[in-house]
Amino acid sequence: MPFSNFTNLDFDQIKTSIKDYLRANSNFTDFDFDGSNFSVLIDTLAYNTYITAFNSNMVVNESFLDSATLRQNVVSLANNIGYTPRSKTAANAQISFDVEVEGTDGVVTLEPGVVCTGDVENETYTFAITEPISANVINNVAKFENINVFQGSYLEKIFTYDGSLDQRFILDNDSIDTSKIIVYVRPSGEEIKGVEYSLVNDIVSVDSESKIYLINEIQDERYELKFGDGYFGKKLGSGVGEDGDEIVVRYITTDGAEGNGAQNFTFSGKIKKQDGNPVKLVEIPKIKTIVKAQNGGDIESIDSIKYFSPITYASQNRAVTARDYEAIIKKIYPNTESVSVIGGEELDPPEFGTVAISIKPKNGNLVSDFSKNQILSGLKQYTISGINQKIIDLKLLFIEINSNVYYNNSLVSNPDGLKTSILNSLNQYSNSINLNKFGGRLKYSKLLKVIDDTDQAITSNITQIIMRRDLQLSINQFAQYELCFGNKFYVDPNGFNIKSTGFTIFGQSETLYFSDIPNSDLKTGILRIIKILDDGTIENVVSSAGSVDYEKGEVNISTVNFLSSTKPNNIVEIQAFPRSNDVVGLKDLYVSLDISNSSINMIRDVISSGDEVSGVQFIRDFYSSSYPNGEIIRKW
Asked: What are the tens digits of pLDDT across the range 50-63?
């Protein structure tokens, strides 16, 4: 038989194939005797073939974007379709401070470099600028207002262009924020600022006089600058009509997301007079924080590059489809974790000619007004004329579980330790790709399996799913509210399908709660406000406080004046049971599995533990209902 199986990655099968070949094509007789010298040679051949096949397999895998595993190869393949992976992003803070100086008039300048330091969780981080900032001195005080400072270290590198085609301009540092790179070109040996060159992502509008540069990620997360050749972009050089042959690059190396949250800053910058001499400060300036450090991000991961490079290529730098917006917003706002884009025709009521965008940032739940303005401004160059964009705040749909977990007492000595293991498994599952995104879906069967597979001592679990939305109250104001859950509600004809935490309203001093009464069609219901009397019975305070649509999963609250809530931050938690245990994040709802507010109850399985075999005690003392509880109010 011919020996043609070169790609087999099993040593024993390769060895068998060699023996089969020798058996069919040679006169040797002792090759299949393991104690012979020939067998040693066959082992060597099989081992060599195995290594060759393995290397060939790895080489082929690294040639395709989907299967490549080395970052250098993934980045190179993404570059082939015009995608530049996102670099680390420096956390950005906005500050103001006044500088009191002696004997100085006119203008003073805050030099590029470190401006201040800030603390995050007992770690000190430096914040810098890449361009000088000037301020007028009035009555011996210079005011520096609303300055944007970026977390990281300021560096400067100078290259000299030698005219060769193979010259490379490589920034040797890693952790560079490429969006903060500033490039100047000037004649060699002259101490002038030079002509600023701009970063471009494509060459659509570039001509032979465009002062531009491109940037690529290379090995070890470093970056290389590329300049024009005289056809696409202005060529470097010292001849007539050229800007010069010396390149000055200013940039920041950053710690990325670690710098987020800094809000108490200490001044450590350098201020100079117009003649270049240092300014004598009367005292160290006290810094006022306008916006705390935010939007810092880590370098784009390999998985993210594999996902976003094809859809960015498909978008062709225009925002038309939802996928286009997702790719472009990720580029404009690197702190994006997930994006939901909804056409205005899908809104209720419809808003034709409008695109509603909801963004879940990596750090926190809300995008600041400052970041919203930056995103909308950045989108303008990609969007179609006549289509307006608006960014709406994130709507979180919390999923809680109430699980009774049965365990074999003979296989575990510490039920509390087993409970901790279950919580760890659930926390890991809550960070999976199925959740923590718009359009995410809680798969009930997967959730049950996560619990069961935590330990062999677990025999079964009875788990209930609860949906929760947090209602942000407008205190001391008459207002109407709407909460959309995006999933059909389970309906008990007796009511109490909607439960809430406590609150007070105008004209009532007692703690009150929301509840509901279904209509006869069991598709809609009446929302009411109740209070719990001392004997445990309920009393209607407002018999019709709104409506419930069980089919759409919506709760509408009529005009009411809230005075307080029992939960912090003026929040009322409203819960419902889903009709289907598979819960979906509809449109702009972001699904989040809330383990901290979930309940795990450990119950000894008396049958599996061998305590009884008839099941009588189990049914009497250890029975768990699979259906929603009959509590009147929310207990969490």
From this structure: 888 888 888 888 88
